[in-house]
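Quick question, first post here. What does this chain look like in 3D?
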Amino acid sequence: MRQSRSEQIAHNIARQVDAGHLKPGARIASVRSAAAEFGVSKNTMVEAYDRLVSLGYLESKPGSGFFICRPRPKPASARPVHVSEAIDLVTLLREQLNQHHAVRVGDGRPPAAWMEGSELGRHLRASQRGASRIEHGYGAPQGYEPLRSLIAGRLIERSIHVTADQILLTFGANHALDLIVRHYVEPGDTVFVDSPGYYPLFGKLRLARANVIGVRRTSEGPDLEDLEAKAARHRPRLFFTQTLAHNPTGTSMAPAALHRLLQQADKHGMILVEDDPFADLLPPITPRLATLDQLERVIYVGTFSKTLSASLRTGYIAGNANLIRSLTDVKMLTVVNSSGYVERLIHDLMAEGHYRHHLNRLRERVNRATREAMLNLERIGLSGFARPDGGYYLWCPLRADIDDVELARQAFDSGIFLAPGSVFCLEREKQAPALRINVAYADNTRFLDFMAAHCAPA
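> Answer (accepted):
Ran it through. Tokens below.
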């Protein structure tokens, strides 16, 4: 249908805003001046401006005129072209997983009934303590719905208001991050990460041929001045960060810093990916980006691998419903589905209260190990570390003359595995020497003796 003149004008101005030709906060021409410029009546110009206000491109300030609004994030459901082309191929796969049809001649696997009477079926029924019929198909691609509902309930306890439809189950947090990278990142896109930060993520982004830039991480969280300077220069698509119990420093961001980070993300049109692997060990009321933002600009990632078992590869992504639908398609293309058996096991542990009891014991262990680790390290002269905030990691600075990689090699020869801090940094040569120490192992006598011999103050 042909556009009206007011629609054409509104579209023209919106394109200039999207392209960055009209800057946020700038005053736009008055209705009278714009009408003369476009050769239309004032009523037509008022209609165009009203349309732009309703779309979020303009803001009306009585007595002052119309002003350009800050750029809004692109809808999270918008797919890059290469992702859309790939997803067009999954119609058959989607039906195999969702099973809308009773007659399944086109299915790619045997019927579940063929498995029910097998040794596999009998063994799994026994392990499920009399649970109802076990599914032997792929299962719903978004993941086991009862577990998604329980996760949504836990997120609501954290004041992140979601439904089960806004949860996608994954093979742990690593898989969740991989899906987000595949969905958003095209070769050459600029992406920000914490530095020091989660080094496996660096590898994923390099595989995607992204331009990966580190934001300096301090004991207070990302250095927001460093972030502001780099964002203005590089215009990043995404910023991956761990706001709480950060890996590897163990520290968390204060609420004021979270607000400032959200403001910067809004200013620069940047999507924030909040990876929260230790969430279940922290108080539910702990402020998070996802709590403050309610998943408008923030994508939230959680996992059971850090709190239950690294072998139970189950994590999740929480986001708006459109994004979750898109990521579900990417999941189907890459791994077909996550493990329904593992998801049911975790569901049962949560539903029967076993997981909460386990978490209570685990918190006590972590707190006790953290106190002992700090005391033991201080006794041998190591200090300057920030207190961990609920996770497993302590960031231990070393003397300036120590090469942390070489120290790790010497420890390896002595049968001790160390994690040198430079591995967690994008620009290793700029990182002061440090170690990431898992507090669970910091009471080991061989480790403490090695550290005393090689790292004690000169």
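Residues 101-111, 113-124, 129-134 have pLDDT under 50 and may be disordered.
The longest strand covers residues 211-218.
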